[in-house]
Design brief:
single chain; alpha/beta; 8-stranded parallel barrel; 10 helices; 8 strands; 40% helix; globular
């Protein structure tokens, strides 16, 4: 599988307003470098220590996105370099990211993960839980994190109608939050809607996604040990 060609194909195919996150989890550095040499600068990982090891070895103009579920005790390992954390699903986690960002004299951008899938296994917050967090006084006190949008994972299904409904649900919440005077305010930071993966990114884009997380369609299938 030609990784460079796949990157080029996505660059030509995706609308200009859609950001491609190349999901490189479990893939070796030499394969990531093929994507890098084809112009890709944003990589997504779901294990913090694997991401840190790759960060150590790879060019420093890469933006690293943490796309997996985050354990609070591991935040410190990525705080020096991570660009965007996609799956923030609690105030406790946000507070931990803020604390570790402060230690590194950084501000870390985050997305709140909203639960849109029917499967029980998917993480995420309910809409009202996210809303209450976003308007809370506690969040305003966190000086080293910025919540810049929402992320969601649709059900693992081939039913396009169901996928569209789930993505539309998240788009609606995103628009509501983005137009909220307290949530978006004067800063106008609330701008990223991360939804869509290798199997459903086209449906996600049709339903308003402006960031897609694509792995196997770029790097080929993964070999899980």
């Amino acid at each position: 599988m030609m990784i460079a060609e796949n990157i080029q194909r996505f660059k030509n195919k995706l609308p200009k307003h859609v950001t491609l996150v190349a999901v490189s989890k479990t893939k070796p550095v030499d394969e990531l470098m093929q994507a890098y040499n084809a112009g890709q600068r944003i990589f997504g990982e779901n294990k913090i220590q694997e991401m840190e090891a790759k960060w150590q070895q790879m060019p420093k103009d890469i933006q690293w996105h943490m796309i997996g579920h985050v354990q609070r005790n591991k935040v410190k390992f990525m705080a020096p370099f991570v660009s965007l954390i996609h799956a923030v699903d609690s105030f406790k986690l946000l507070k931990e990211i803020d604390k570790e960002a402060k230690k590194n004299a950084r501000t870390i951008e985050c997305l709140l993960q909203i639960k849109i899938a029917e499967e029980e296994s998917k993480f995420g917050m309910e809409k009202m839980e996210a809303y209450n967090l976003l308007i809370s006084e506690e969040v305003k006190k966190l000086t080293n994190v910025k919540i810049v949008g929402l992320m969601g994972m649709a059900s693992f299904t081939e039913n396009e109608e169901q996928l569209s409904e789930e993505f539309q649900k998240l788009k609606k919440i995103f628009e509501e939050f983005r137009n909220h005077p307290i949530i978006n305010g004067e800063s106008n930071l609330f701008k990223i809607l991360s939804m869509g993966m290798s199997g459903d990114y086209e449906i996600a884009i049709k339903n308003g996604s402006n960031m897609v997380r694509v792995g196997s369609a770029i790097f080929g299938e993964r070999n899980y040990q």
